[in-house]
């Protein structure tokens, strides 16, 4: 029956189920924290019940059977027959993992209904948790073996020759095939592929195979010893088996890779259809204007009509772009829902007690940004649990609660996605980090003496750097935090550290949301012959200051005074090393820009226009270039760099520190 099922429908069912199973981890952790929460247990029960029913529809009997036992345990918990304990949660989480593995195998094309040893162990744990009887439950195979014994006795008495008895035996055979399946005629013992081949070719019988399976040897060896098959027969069967395996491998290679998918609400699709309809109407207006222009009459009137049509077109394209951006947004829940399970498993592995909390998981961000940040977030949390939070006995000695705290928050601040990972552990000791860096040859003692603590703390991002005393399954190889920095930089973001010895650590990831937009609103500015685009959301005002407003201040360099406030001046021509038309602020245009709560001034030659820039990735060559979000093709066909104001401000601050 499985091969008769539409593959597309099956794959859709698998994707939906994998999403549902992925959301269960957080629910199981919630259940452990609140064992009496009936809403949580009912939500989990409904998910497993739905999976069981759908698996039966697709003839995935192994999944249906497993989910049924899983459901029984959940039902006992729901009815209060069993209490929620850490051991029960372990069993439930392990069972969920087994279900995920089963669906992965089906997704890979494995349509067999066999349970792996891991699946069987998980089922045994479920039965034990339900207080199963010491004696093993009677299986359908056992019942049919007893029936076969009774039929054999009837045959000896020649009673099976009677029509009524013969009809009953036929019905039993049909029932056997319905319950056990046509390949289970050996009393429920699965026949290996080699055995099937030997039976099909007439070398041995099914009874010979069943008898051989009772021995603790390879089937081929047993059949040769018993004289049931020759060595050539076995070699031929092995060859045929390998050919079948090769055919299966080829079939898997030919299987079309499943592309990335997203769920989109129907009303959003309807909105796109409406916009496309408006665009078609707009295109007809342009066609009409084209014909009018060809006639050469009423030019002034045509200019006005063209302006109106162009305004409508710009508005439609903006709405279309905004709609597409909304469609691509998904909740951070996709990442966050995996974290409670990870923290629970990791803390149990290293004998720590962690109270894990999170907020902001409902924040919507571009799907590509989630894919970029998942690995860094996981690395940082693992680092907090393993390196940050102390062992319970150590926390007690230092006057802390033996249960450590790890918190993850997410919010949008001035166009940035800001994710914070906070722990109340031992924090970072700058002096120890310097000593470790000297030991590894990353810095010299002379550099360490003058290195500020804030810079020393960032040594944890150096490749190969680790403060772990020994290598474990969790950490100690110096791999992880350097990956965090690399991946965050690729997303045009930054990582900040706030820590003190014994006071824990706050690690903040900030990534511009605009880096994932299709288009951004910006101001086109000129510096010499070059054009740049500055996102308009970061521009507060622009002006041409008087000469007396510009002065020089220690540690800030050149500044401009605006309404009794001093703002540092960044010269765009110096940053990108290009010739400028104006080098003095009172000749050019000073733009007051704000990012990350800081303000400064950007000196340019002139502001040319406001534009909707289509953001393009500039490739690997610009990956490490600070202050650049990407590129955009301007209306005249030239390319302009889209600037990251935050990156420019950080580079300027570092430059000023280096001059002090």
Helical content stands at: 40-55%
Helical/strand content category: alpha+beta
The CATH topology annotation of the largest domain reads as Heat Shock Protein 90
User: What is the CATH homology-level superfamily of the largest domain?
Assistant: Histidine kinase-like ATPase, C-terminal domain
What is the typical, i.e. mean, pLDDT?
A: 79
Looking at the overall shape, the CATH architecture of the largest domain is 2-Layer Sandwich
**Sheet with the most strands?**
6 strands, mixed
Reading off the top of the CATH hierarchy, the class of the largest domain is best stated as: Alpha Beta
Give Rg in angstroms. Answer: 35 Å
Total domains: 5
Cα shape: extended
Strand order of the largest sheet: 10-14-15-13-12-11
Distance between the termini: 77 Å
Proportion of strand residues: 15-25%
Oligomer: single chain
Any low-confidence stretches, pLDDT <50, length ≥5? 132-137, 183-192, 249-258
Helix segment count?
A: 24
Characterise this structure.
- The protein is of the alpha+beta class.
- The protein has five domains: 2-129, HPT domain (Four Helix Bundle (Hemerythrin (Met), subunit A), Up-down Bundle); 191-260; 266-327; 331-513, Histidine kinase-like ATPase, C-terminal domain (Heat Shock Protein 90); 517-659, OB fold (Dihydrolipoamide Acetyltransferase, E2P) (Beta Barrel), CATH 2.40.50.180.
- Helix content is 50%, strand content 17%.
- It is built from 24 helices and 18 strands.
- The strands form four sheets. A six-stranded mixed beta sheet has the order 10-14-15-13-12-11.
- Strand 17 (628-633) and strand 18 form a beta hairpin.
- Helix 2 (24-33) packs antiparallel against helix 5 (86-107), helix 4 (61-78) runs antiparallel to helix 5 (86-107) and helix 5 packs antiparallel against helix 6 (117-129).
- It starts with 6 loop residues before the first helix and ends with a helix.
